[in-house]
UniProtKB/TrEMBL annotation:
Source superkingdom: Bacteria
InterPro entries attached to this UniProt entry: DUF6545, MAB_1171c-like
Full protein name: DUF6545 domain-containing protein
Pfam families named in the record: DUF6545
The DUF6545 domain, residue ranges: 245-379
Keywords assigned: Membrane, Transmembrane, Transmembrane helix
Parts of the chain that traverse the membrane: 31-54, 66-87, 99-118, 138-158, 179-199, 219-241
Amino acid sequence: MRVINLSVCAILWAIAVWRAPGAFRHKEKRVLWAAFFVLAVEMCFANDPAVLWLDGAIGVHGFAALLKHASAVSAAACVLVFLSRAAASSAPAARRGRLRPGTVVPLVTLAAMVVLFFRTDRPQEAVDPLTAYPEDPWLLAYTLLWTTYFGWAMFTASRLSWQWSRRPGPDSLRRGLRLICLGTGIGIAYTVHRASMLVVGRLGLHPLSAGTEQLLNRLLALVPLLLISAGSTMPMVPVAVRAGRQHYRLVRLYPLWAHLSDAVPQIRYGAARHPLADALDPRGVRDRLYRRTIEIRDAILVLNGAATVPMRLRAADHVEEAGLTGISATAAAEACWLRAAREAQVSGHARTGHLEAPVHSGADLDTEADLLLTLSNVYFSDLATAFARAHLARLTSPAGATP
């Protein structure tokens, strides 16, 4: 169970760190980030040794239990506020007023929990005071209070998630909302189990052993956390995948950009960075990829003027002799004359040619980057390298062959 607790703690911290930049940039995302941050802090004290250490450090028996329950109430309130705001933004105007929860109820609940907790008699340290002192009436009131609010919040969150998931929207969002609905449903079961076991224990009945009850409590508490975390993160998966692909294209296009911009440095918007520093920089990936494709196209445009008609014809023949046909041959021929024009530009033997329109261009950023990646593969291949060497040798030969 300790491994599970640590795993859930690591997942919650990873989500909190991942969401932090967006939460600080966008006000509407802060409340959900706050829920994950509160739960991540609480999970740091989910194991028994951490509970005993915290209680000993604070000097209050059962303080870790109060922290856990207050965190659950606070996180539930944050999730409820987030779902209510999101559902209200997509609901008809006539219904929006009914979807806004207040903040007074959770604050009053937390204040009452603190008062009731310190009214209880806890003579000895216990990992779970609720089961250690079932006869204390103040502790019974404390438990019923926080489980009532938590259960109501989970029920309301389930209703909002289910209603929102039935509206038109991206599949990832709808699936995520259904996972949240499932998690909050299990959260309701947790509160019912928690309250019923305390009431039954007060009557002197113990249908479950202490170990079984503790294990069931932890599972019913952890599973909703995982489901709600997965459900709230699922809509971000397509965005993360797209960002990952764009970062991959950005890194893959660096060699082509660097090789071309060395020949025509005027196309660079800024100073060239080390490829490792460029690859490890997570900021503005889409904008940087957009800029990189533009600069590569600018370099191609400049070198286009050094590609004479005879050079282009020789490139087409060179590709045909290699056995390429169709669109692949056209793209390969472009890579060959581009590599040859670049080498001629660097050596100072470039000849003035005739500007021609690009052979291919993408309709959007992703397709444009993919086309340039295809060009890059051929550009650095033996096929283009051999053609560039032959062209440079022809330009530097004493006989002065045609370009």
